[in-house]
Amino acid sequence: MFETLQRSLKLTGIVVGSVLVLTGCSGCIDEAAERDARIMKKARAATGGEMTAEKKDSESGCLKSFFTQSLHHTGEGMRYWYEEAGGFMDITGIPYAQLDCKNCHIQSCDKCHVREEGKQKVLSREKARDMKTCMPCHGREGLTFKFDAAKGQTGVHMAADMACADCHFGDDVHGDGQFRQSMRAPGAVAMTCEKCHVDQVRESPAFDPETAAHAAHGDKLACQACHVSNTTACMNCHFNRFLETGQRKGNFIPMKEWLLLINHEGKVTSGSAMTLVYDQKKFIAYVPYYTHSVMPEGRKCDDCHQNKAVQLLEKGEKVPVMAFRDGKVVPWKGVVPVIPDQLDFVYLDKTDAGWVPLSDDTKETVQFAEYGEPLTPDQLRMLAEDVSE
């Protein structure tokens, strides 16, 4: 079969176990030849010499040593933060391996690269670049694009007809052979705003360090703190209903009205939160999160400094980030600093009649995942300063 595929697509490659490892996929990206050389170098190192058709033991082959270490294959980030001390498994008691979350993990190249031509299946780099291939697993980004289109606020990259693969290719997709616990671990995702807008890996509008906002904030802020419009969040995941029905749709509440400010790797960046309910128990995870809703111009000063949320926090009052009034969820609008004890989220039960607030007023379990940290008192004081002059 692989020989037929190779002839039909004019590909060169080697067979490792039941996987065709491509060595000549030129055209996927401009740097394909260099990337292929890196892949084959790692593959040869893993097998102790030349790769040949006789090396068919996948336990020692390229797939085992290279792609299977990637987060696309392992899904380790989801498992790690769910099962770690203080994670949601502390409430459910259900191991990650018993949940269907793991079913998104990519077991072979076929998941992204194989398409049907008549009655035949062929390998396709075009399918891997098609955003429709990404969205079934990266559903939150799919929600982002739907929300933005409905509001006429399409992000600058989407408006330019860019696809996921224009930024995420090579090691971002296939891994670099190193096992990591999270996509936020150093080196897990190579692409950054600076790669294009400073280093010009792709020709892009150049970053200007002399603009007022850039000069004022320096290295204190990540780009997305100012250039992401708001955050796509999946709130109040009703885990009991999810387990009973096997369905996500209808068992959580998607929203995109606010953006959280959270610390990550020494900078303030855009963040999100996810709330969950299981057996009347409440849980919230705060994370640094990059929603692909990018504004070409950054925020105005008063979008963050002395905004309504900051004023409430300064007075010691809570910010109703997610409220419930007259039978409807009412989300906060605007930027909210992450001060966990002062952010208020309603927790709801899913009944046959719809969503109703939990009667139990027990405090929720709070997790800071993906190496995120709350803002400090000093940072809150800076946000409370008058910067209008």
UniProtKB/TrEMBL annotation:
Note the Gene3D superfamilies from the entry: Cytochrome C3 (3.90.10.10)
* Higher taxonomy: Bacteria, Pseudomonadati, Thermodesulfobacteriota, Desulfobacteria, Desulfobacterales
Per its UniProt entry, which superkingdom is the organism in? Answer: Bacteria
Keyword Signal assigned: yes
Organism of origin is Desulfonema ishimotonii
One annotated GO molecular function: oxidoreductase activity
Keywords in alphabetical order: Signal
In terms of InterPro entries, this protein maps to:
Multihaem_cyt_sf, Multiheme_Cytochr_ET
What is the name of this protein?
Answer: Uncharacterized protein
Q: Does the keyword Glycosyltransferase apply?
A: no
